[in-house]
Amino acid sequence: MSIEQDIKQSSFKSAHEKAVVNIVYTNNWLAGLQMEVLKPYDLTLQQYNVLRILRGHYPKPITVIGIIERMLDKMSNASRLVDKLLLKDLVVRHECPNDRRAVDILITQKGLDVLAELDSMQKFWEEKLYGLSEAEANQLSDLLDKMRKTT
Amino acid sequence: MSIEQDIKQSSFKSAHEKAVVNIVYTNNWLAGLQMEVLKPYDLTLQQYNVLRILRGHYPKPITVIGIIERMLDKMSNASRLVDKLLLKDLVVRHECPNDRRAVDILITQKGLDVLAELDSMQKFWEEKLYGLSEAEANQLSDLLDKMRKTT
DNA sequence: TGACATTAAATGTTTTTACATTAAATTTGT
DNA sequence: ACAAATTTAATGTAAAAACATTTAATGTCA
């Protein structure tokens, strides 16, 4: 559905305002699709993202700080997200040998298996559902990058 | 900062995946900017959005359902958002004359004043901070629209 | 070395979200 | 008209987010 229809607003003050609203709207749309896929696995979006970060480093572990640095939302509580993943046996945690303050987190085989299952569904809505060509997807990324350039 | 730098990931599996991550990232970036502006006014993003919806209908009131229909995030609890705005005297609430189930919500002069103040700051980061031309902003909206077209 | 600052992670607390349920008013169908 | 279904809003609730504080380990440097 178009934004205008969905939020019952027919005009925006500027192209920029419309783009901003469209980004927020599209983000919500994307989150909805992803959560639908994740729900049966009892994973939240944030937990899923942490899992993917851990897989990105497998078989090397990564500290909580390392996770935060790679998270899109830096404000969320990585410690507690890891707690939740621990309860599901998707990660293991042990003291970092060279810095006893830090904690090494490693994704388990079970975690990798869950992600592997999710990959196929992820692919489904990332490739099939999209009306964008690859070139257009790149163009979209470039525009977003440019939007964030403040100087 | 570029996404790659900020989340310390140098490659994406596909242009689509990168675009998705970029949307989420940009959305967080936008929310951060907005919240910075809203914080001194003790308003959350959602409350701010509800206020703007109410202004959009001023001087006509609008019901809670009407608010929900116009919100980007349909899942959030409009009743409680209105409660919060009531506490700050930014809106008033009274029974809808032609349907006693419904409740008419109207933005107050104080609410309008707050929004007017926020408008100028909003404008600041919507126009000055952006590296995008108007044409590019439109192009961005079009690409997002196209991305959401599933059929 | 030893005081002080910094870093890493966990924990506490309040607010917000997501979702279900409830309660009252209205609409529908017979 | 009246029972059943639907709509509207509020409320209950468990979980999560936002943000500050705490605890322990490490780093800095006079």
Write structural notes for this entry:
2 copies of one chain form a homodimer. With 151 residues, chain A is mainly alpha-helical. Chain A has one domain: Winged helix-like DNA-binding domain superfamily/Winged helix DNA-binding domain (Arc Repressor Mutant, subunit A, Orthogonal Bundle), CATH 1.10.10. In chain A, 62% of the residues lie in helices and 8% in strands. Chain A is built from 7 helices and 3 strands, in the order αααβααββαα. The first copy, chain A, has helices spanning 3-6, 15-38, 45-57, 64-70, 78-87, 109-128, 134-148; strands spanning 62-63, 91-95, 103-107. The first copy, chain A, has a 3-stranded antiparallel sheet with strand order 1-3-2. The longest helix of chain A is centred in the first third of the chain and has 24 residues, at 15-38. Chain A starts with a helix and ends with a helix. In chain A, 30% of the residues are buried. The interface between A and B is large, with 52 and 52 residues. The first copy, chain A, binds a DNA duplex (30 and 30 nucleotides) through α5.
Keyphrases for this structure?
homodimer, 151 residues, mainly alpha, Arc Repressor Mutant, subunit A, three-stranded antiparallel β-sheet, 7 helices, 3 strands, DNA-binding
